[in-house]
From TrEMBL:
Protein name, UniProt field: Flagellar biosynthetic protein FliR
A Gene Ontology BP annotation from the UniProt entry: protein targeting
Organism expressing this protein natively: Vibrio parahaemolyticus
Highest classification ranks of the organism: Bacteria, Pseudomonadati, Pseudomonadota, Gammaproteobacteria, Vibrionales
Keyword Transcription regulation: no
Family annotation (Pfam families): Bac_export_1 (PF01311)
Amino acid sequence: SVVLDWIANYFWPYVRISSMLMVMTVTGARFVSPRIRLYLGLAITFAVMPAIPAVPQDIELLSFRGFMTIAEQMIIGIAMGMV
């Protein structure tokens, strides 16, 4: 459906960006609430989406391949946040 395609386009970058923000030194500190980090990730995702190429729509969010893609995006985001 169109709605799931739209959500998937934003979901993969959001997972990567929010994972990065969760482990970054500046935003990963205890005095920054997890809710603020997630909202910041959402805002950054909406800001960078026009610059990101279209995501392939052959991955369903609630499938094994979807869960493996989520894990992949989280690992990439955590690695980016550690740098």
